[in-house]
Amino acid sequence: MSGADLANLCNEAALMAARRNARVVEMQDFEKAKDKIFMGPERKSMVMPEEERRNTAYHESGHALIGKLLPKCDPVHKVTIIPRGRALGVTMSLPAQDRYSYDREYMLNQISMLFGGRIAEEVFMHQMTTGASNVFERATNLARDMVMKYGMSDALGPMVYAENEGEVFLGRSVTKTTNMSEQTMEKVDSEVRRIIDDQYALARRLIEENSDKMHAMAKALLEWETIDSEQLDDIMAGKEPRPPKDWTPRTPPSGSNGGGNGGTPAVNPEPSPTAA
Known about the structure:
Blueprint: H1 3-19, H2 27-39, H3 50-69, E1 76-80, E2 90-93, H4 104-125, H5 133-148, E3 164-166, E4 175-177, H6 182-209, H7 211-224, E5 226-228, H8 229-236
Antiparallel strand pairs: 1-2, 1-5, 3-4
């Protein structure tokens, strides 16, 4: 983050502290400010039907599970089904250290993680929604850049196939020139399709093999709406996830509700479907 970004973060944290009438800005204020800057402002006033909340919970759980399982994905920092900005839910990954370049395995893992949400909808909700449209665009662009710009395709080799785009300068319109034959363009499309299909199949296999963790993540999200790395680590280790630090029950626990002790919610997950 630049100096201006850090100043903006401090200002947002001070506003968060003022909203809770605090005299000192604490780490929780910086955490909320960081989430607002990186993920967008919360839209808690937006009311989603329970079916859509459940779909969003599985969608974000799919992203998070793939991010936890694949080695080159950035660590998953937080997952939420609270609408933020234009998104119904967000899975935020933060790099463990600064990155200045990206290797082939990292980009393939990113494509798999992007597909995790749509696959979770198919496997557990038996439907497809428009929420994954931007994900497909990003995954396709990554795969196409690997083939056309970065020479990361064994079939086409270390050669640039991208179109040359002239920048707009002094009123000149954008110009494009294509240096590929139709046969080469077909090979490029075929290689992009192979990369996408391979990563889609990998993500689907991981999600189907870890359906118990998917159900646990979705249940935690439906109860707490936001989970962080601690809850994710508990779930991946097969443990009962601990409640988030800043979570407070919506209704006080009572002995009359059988077993209601503020743990994971009593949501009946659907049985894992058989592989098609």
